[in-house]
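Lab notebook, bench 4. The sequencing result for the construct came back, and we need a structural model before the next group meeting so we can plan mutations. Quick request posted to the team channel:

Model the 3D structure of this chain.
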Amino acid sequence: MRLDRFLCETTDLTRSLAKKALHREEVQVDGEVIKNPATQVDASRRVTWNGEPLALVGLRYVMLNKPAGVECSARRGLYPLVRELVDLPHVERLQTVGRLDVDTTGLVLLTDDGQWSHRVTSPKRRCGKVYRVTLAEPLEGEALVAAMSQFAEGLWLEGEEKSTRPADLAMREPRVAELTLFEGKYHQVKRMFAAIGHHVEALHRESIGPLVLGGLAPGEWRELTEDERAQF
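Done. Here's the predicted structure in token form:
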């Protein structure tokens, strides 16, 4: 890796600021001042900037219990970003693995490993996501039987060219549903229930594939174990 890129990867320096730091003789490699930005370095070299050792940050995999009022987008808008809840170096490099609406709570995954993220989100891998859905009105009796059949067959949502993939619907209480999806269309859960005449009052994601939110409180996070990562 070029030395100027190494500096950008391990600090908050831009490429131009990294070159200026090199020109000011602030960077040493194995104890020697280096000014050439094209110098090649790897993990075996000791690189320091103003005497502070630098090290590359490896790929990170995080699960978080997203509270309401937090966005999963890459750029901050009206609400705080979900990655701002994570206390890790270079947190700006973390991207959410799929998204939740700003008012939806529950399990969110973040990573800087694009290939892993694709494996989790690809519909072809049928990675089920389980949601707890609180409805404004009870769903029971014949209406429930009809809804379960419609969700299992797939619904045509306004503006979509294809029907939804088969989804599993069950009721925990008359107003609390459990929905398992195998895809992630825009506002899909709310649109599916709207299509059968029901309004979603609250939405909470409990699991993604084998990963279950567990005991994380709203706003809390932890890094995935190696075994957890390997399940995707």
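The radius of gyration is 23 Å.
Will bring this to the meeting.
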